[in-house]
Amino acid sequence: MSGITQKRNFGAAQIILFLSIAVLVIVVAVPVLLIFFNAFWVGGKFNIRDVLKIIGEPDTYQALVNSLIIAAGTTIGSTIIGTFFAWLVTRTDLPYKRFMKSMFLVPFMLPSFIGALAWKMLLSPRAGFINRFFMANFGLSGPVFNIYSYAGIILVEVMYLFPFVFIQVCGALERMDPTLEESARISGAGLFTITRKITIPLVLPSILSGALLIMLYSMAHFGTVAVLGIENGIFNIPTLIYQRIHQSAGSFASIRTGTVLATVLVVTAAFIIWLQGKILSKGHYQIIAGKSFRPMELKLRTLRVPLFVLCVAYIGFTIVLPTVVIFLVGGLKTYGLPFTWENLSLDNYKFILFDYKVTRDAIWNSVTLGLAAALITMFAGVMISYVIVKMKVRGKGFLEFLGMLPFSVPGSVIALGVILAWSGKFGINLYNTVWIILVAYIARYMAFSLRANSAALEQVHDSLVEAARACGATMWQALKDIVLPLVRPGMLAAFFLIFLPSLRELTVSIMLYAPTTRTIGVAIYTLNEDGETVVSAALAGIALVLIVTGQSLVNYFTGKSEG
Amino acid sequence: MSHVRLVNVTKRFGLVTAVDSLNLEVSKGECFSMLGPSGCGKTTTLRMVAGFEDLSEGEIYVGDRLISSPGKNYYLPPEKRDFGMVFQAFAVWPHLSVYENVAFPLRVRKLSASEIEKRTTDALRSTNLLNAAKDSPADLSGGGKQRVALARALAINPDVMLLDEPLSSLDPHLREEMRFEIKDLQRQYGFSIIYVTHDQSEAMALSDRILVMKLGVVQQIDTPFNVYNDPANKFVFSFIGLSNFLEIAWSGDKPFPRGSGAPLPLDLTPPDAMRKAKTFSLASRPSEIDFGGEDGLRGVVTRKSFLGEIIDYQIKIGEGEMRVQKSRRTPGPQVGETCGLSLRRPFWYTGTE
Amino acid sequence: MDIIQVEDIAKSYGKHRVHEELSLSIQQGECFTLLGPSGCGKTVLLRLIAGFEIPDAGKISIGGTVVSDPSAGVNISPDSRGLGVVFQDYAVWPHMTVFDNVAYPLKLIKMPRKDLTERVMETVSMVGMGGLEKRLPSELSGGQQQRVALARALVAKPSLMLLDEPLTNLDANLREEMRFEIKELQRKLNITVFYVTHDQEIALAISDRLAIMDETGHIRQTGNPWEIFEQPADPFVFNFMGIANFISVRRVGEDYLVGNGAQPMPWEKPEGDASEWAAGFRPSDVRIAPAGGAGLRGVVKRASFLGAMMDYLIDVDGASLRTSIETHEALTERLMFKEGEACVVNFRNLLWFDARSLAEVLKR
């Protein structure tokens, strides 16, 4: 066989591995390590007493407690609502189930801080429309509901976070083998018993995993608390970090406090992710069916109409109402005027799109930053995922550990770390430029890219690549001809998973922006803080249009390629 | 005495008729199999008996008790039918222990604690699961899981056991073992079985009677022996066991295998019913063909495969082929040789059915 | 001439030793099957030959060229070994049409477009897929996908093809059909096939020679199908190659008595002085007759009609044995037994095994 020739392997695997590790170290690991370093090392010495002292200060202590209260409330509320609606749309004869299901997923698209703005307009104690309406018409002396409270913050977070539980439980219920329930039925159990004894326990891991995800988000959540809490002195960890860094212009003490709070946040997040992994690996039952029949439906009978009305009311109240308010306020000449035709116009929208430099810059910044971050993160993500999922090289374990990092580092922590790392400490000063925001976006969204690309790569079975090798393809040829075309959908998904959320990003940008580097989120937030409520609302309206249009396009195209 | 009775049962999904006016009676203690290719309506029929599907028309009785009748607008829900049922995908509950899986039907019936304990233990003993009572079913093999499903179905000591391809998720070796276990359990408990499968050897080995179904229409209901030896039509013949079909055409008044210059020998004279057909099939089973003398049906050996216990031959006759399977002890021709075949039992079929 | 030579190969994964001092040679033009239970390491050997795995020690040559020899630092990558490989899970590329899948090996060697098209179409129709070349794999059945994989492995005209359980994921009918087709292609193209499977029927049907590997990765016997089936080297091979009966026989004085009863075994005595023996035989080695004749007296415990065959489970003094008899023969020779009926059995063929060594084999 003269066809057999020996070629040397030039260590292509080592190069890819090295690059992957370098990306993760520079973008994620160094900033996080700098935070730990700043928190624990003072004057070159390890110092835990100071850390404890900072945590013990009334402000920081209160922020920790607030974070816990809000996260606990949000998690409990979202889990109950999410599980209930998921059960309703998958296991009952509720009318228009499919439509309802897609409506319940809408909050995924809506930025919660814009929602919070809307609710502020509706329910702020003095100026809120609802409160004013009731005070004027029913002679109440005080507001019906004060949104500037724990309850207000929790309610708004629940509205925007419950889809995490909803979608997990829906998925589990839909994929569940119907014979698991049928066998209970033939055993003599009625539908109520089956739901209680079989269905709920089987989807419990999905419920818990969704709940923990919500807890993680809520702990690290900035927007809602920033909009609704600060007014009444309610800070959580991310808002306190922001406030300290923002107000004291980078003094040592405030950075110190920030890093300590950030450390607490990272540790909590890591714990939650560990717990989630535990629940998923231990309690994840193999309940997926091969042969499928339609699962049985509970006949709601007399409850059918009331529950339908409840769903419609929920959707109307939590999705339609705030959205409408945003657009209406965005059309007002001055905030506070009643919604009459004379008072409404498109002037604000024209103004921010064509005349107002601040908002035009913000839109431009967000779009370019989003595109750049999405592209870079997509390519880096596919490379890193490839090493983690497919390659057998030494040193992979370290990369796997690094790959976990982006999942457990909340946005405000990343922002703080990026400030520490890129403000001239290593000879490069990006502070007050767009570049620092870009670096932070890449770090923040790396997790999304890793998840989407790993999932796509898991689908590419090893034998597909080996078949190509056996056909005479070198490793690079196999990568180019087989692997890349097959993970393209995953890469595309990663791109949009990053591009669309980055259009509305607030948590990271708010800590890093300079006067010329505002993003859409920052502009909405600061305009609102400055009392430019109508302009802020109009910009929020435009952001909503951008995001919803983009998401619908993505859904349309991915849906089409799947079908 | 008939125990489960289906009268004119019809099921339509939209425009498709999945089951077309099916009548059948299953006797007490009988093992009755429904056999057919996938999509023939056998599983739908079983699910109608279980109560998971409504009937479009017809009635189902258990003993004298009506359980489904769209005409009388009567429908007894599955949980009130007191059947045992085993599913293809095991359907054991992974969050409950083996013991609790089996005890579940008894608990929902609110039996006394001692009764639950006794019956659960009995069912576990019958299925050789006593040692695994505390285990999680997730730790059991496929065969183990299916035993749990069987024990759970047995626990209420049902009169009727519905089995929906219970063995097709198991590997072949285990499949054979389990079918005998099911038979033993039936003997021990005395329930009637309605068994759905697409595996004809399984149906043959287990059943007292077999129903062969195609596209929702019954082809034959009979004992395994009669279904095999006296198939109602070409479909049943080809579905049960290995089969050969040789296409025959009249040329003058002599029958010729397609592409062959020699007519069929005299001992293979087609019956008169074949006279009218332009072409028809000569059918036989590979195990019922002997290598004969010069005056048999003649062909050339194109393949000879040693399969261990048996030797498998492929014989080319004109443009057609016949497979012959002989015991390894029976001498036979080599590849390339011409041989004569004698068919112990020729079957003749016109058309495609 | 040997086309593949495997010499003293060793391969471990961590502490798990899959192969040790394994040697094997495969001749030019033959269909060689490596048969063994799942997890015995047969796929590892195939992957070593293909170059997807690197041996820890030993030497592999293909067509006289050393392709793996860790001691000499030789490791030729799989793309340079010039093999065709077919995998259990088909491994057809889902983003390419049938044509593109099959054309890929030719595109890599930059074959001119016209020749390429001709060769691909020829190969596609050879595996019975003519007319389907524009389809995507998702539009094909499992059997069709495996045909595409076969065509892809054959298109570059390799002299050696490796097949890793290619029929396992297909249903029984298709499996039977395809095994003959693979054999047919191998003959027609005169290529060497190295086939790995756990299914003894496929191995017997297609092999010129086969090797039986046990759970520990050792080759127990190599030979042609007839030798392996009729002259098994040991109880492992005997047990693996088909339904095997083992009944216990104990020596009492000069007599060899079956089960726990007092009937002597109607067969020549074993050689050796062990006191516990097992008689091994296939179901077809048993001759069953109505009660009253000479032979072991037993009772039919179970009678199953399986169509072409009648299958009986017979109890002889606590020892059970299975026998099968053609239904036709059973009917004409009056050998249709009912459950509970008495019968006698004799043997056509029988192998003696030391009970202790047998127990070890069966335990594994």
Structure notes:
The complex is a heterotrimer of chains A (563), B (353) and C (364). Chain A is globular, with a radius of gyration of 26 Å. Helices cover 74% and strands 1% of the residues of chain A. Chain A is an all-alpha fold and 563 residues long. In chain A, α15 packs across α16 (357-390) and α23 (520-529) runs antiparallel to α24. The mean pLDDT of chain A is 86. A two-stranded antiparallel sheet of chain A has the order 1-2. Chain A has helices at 12-40, 48-56, 58-91, 97-104, 112-123, 129-138, 150-161, 163-175, 178-186, 191-219, 223-228, 237-247, 252-283, 304-331, 347-355, 357-390, 396-408, 411-421, 434-459, 462-470, 475-502, 507-512, 520-529, 533-562, and strands spanning 41-42, 45-46. By secondary structure, chain B is of the alpha+beta class. Chain B folds into two domains: 2-233, 3-Layer(aba) Sandwich (Rossmann fold); 242-350, OB fold (Dihydrolipoamide Acetyltransferase, E2P) (Beta Barrel), CATH 2.40.50. Chain B is built from eight helices and 20 strands. Chain B has a six-stranded mixed beta sheet, sandwiched between helices. Chain B has a five-stranded antiparallel beta sheet with strand order 2-1-4-5-6, with helices on one face. Chain B has a five-stranded antiparallel beta sheet with strand order 15-19-16-17-18, with no helix packed on it. The longest helix of chain C is centred in the middle third of the chain and has 18 residues, at 172-189. With 364 residues, chain C is an alpha+beta fold. Helix content of chain C is 27%, strand content 34%. Chain C is built from ten helices and 20 strands. The model of chain C has no long low-confidence stretch (mean pLDDT 91). In chain C, α2 (98-108) runs parallel beside α4 (142-154). Chain C folds into two domains: 2-239, 3-Layer(aba) Sandwich (Rossmann fold); 243-363, OB fold (Dihydrolipoamide Acetyltransferase, E2P). Classes of the chains: A mainly alpha (563), B alpha+beta (353), C alpha+beta (364). The A-C interface holds A 1, 3-7, 9, 461, 463-464, 466-475, 477, 481-482, 485-486 and C 50-52, 62-65, 67, 74-85, 87-89, 91-95, 104-105, 108-109, 149, 152-153, 156, 159, 162.
